[in-house]
Write a structure and sequence with these properties.
- Helices cover 75% and strands 0% of the residues.
- The chain is elongated.
- The two termini are 50 Å apart.
- The chain has 259 residues and is mainly alpha-helical.
- Helix 4 runs antiparallel to helix 5, helix 9 packs antiparallel against helix 10 and helix 11 packs across helix 12.
- The chain is built from 13 helices and no strands.
- Among the domains are: 68 residues, no CATH class; 57 residues, no CATH class.
Amino acid sequence: MQKRLIRLLSLWLLTGLVAGLAVMSGCGTGNPYPPGSYERGVFFAEKGKNLEAVSSFESFVRRNPTDSLAAEAQFRKAVTYMKMKEYPLAAVEFQILRKDYPTSPRVEEALYQEGMAYLKQVGRIERDISGAYEARAHFRDFLRTYPDSRFRPQVEQAMVEISDLIVTKRLREINVYRQLGRYTAVAATLDNILESEQDSSLLDKVLWERARAAFRLEKEEEGRGFLQQLVQRYPESDYADQARRELGPSSAPADSTGS
C-alpha cells in the first residue's frame, strides 16, 4: 500500500511538472490549441502523447469545473491513465468523475471502467489475489445499479475471468494439501469452490478433483456421485470423458438424464 501511494504521488507530481513546462513552452509543443483548453488535451491524446494529455485535461478541469465539457475531460483523463496502464490512478479518476459529476452521461461507463481498472491490477499480483475479490465486489455493485447496462456482457465475462483466477489459485493450494496427504482438507476446499465460484469455467476440473478426493477418502459412492455430476453438467468436457471411463456402462443413464 505504501509503495502504491508513493507511485501515485510521483506520477501526479510528474504530471504537474509536465503541465507547468507545457504552459511555459506555449506553442513549442506543436499543439495548435491554447493551454488550458479541452481541445489541447484531445489533440495530445490523439497523438499518443499521454502524459501531456493527462496534464492538459487536468488543467482544463481545474480552470473550468462547471464547463459542459468538464466531465468529458475528467473521463478522458481517466481513460488516458488506462492507456498508460496506470490502473490505480485511473480508478481514482473514474471515482472523481462519479463524485463530482453525478449527472454526467459518462457515470455508468466510469463505474464499469473503474471495475476494469481493479481487474487489470490483479495481473500484477503473483501471490495476493485480494484485488480480484475487490473487482468482483465492484462489478456486482455495478450490475445491481445497472442491470440492463450495455456493458453487462463485458462485466459477466470479467466475472468469469475473476472466478477462474480465484479457482486456479485455490487449486494450487489443494496441491499442497494433497502432497501432505490431507485429503479431508482437499475435499473441504473443493466443496467451498463449488459453492462460491459458480461463475467459473473450471468447475468441470473441480468436480473431477472432488471425485478423486472422495475416492482417496474411500468414499466410493460419493466419488461416483461427483463423476455423475460432471458428466451431466459438462458433457463436452475432457474430464467428462475420463469420468465416463471411470463410471463404465453405468454412465449412460447419466448422459441421457443430463441431455
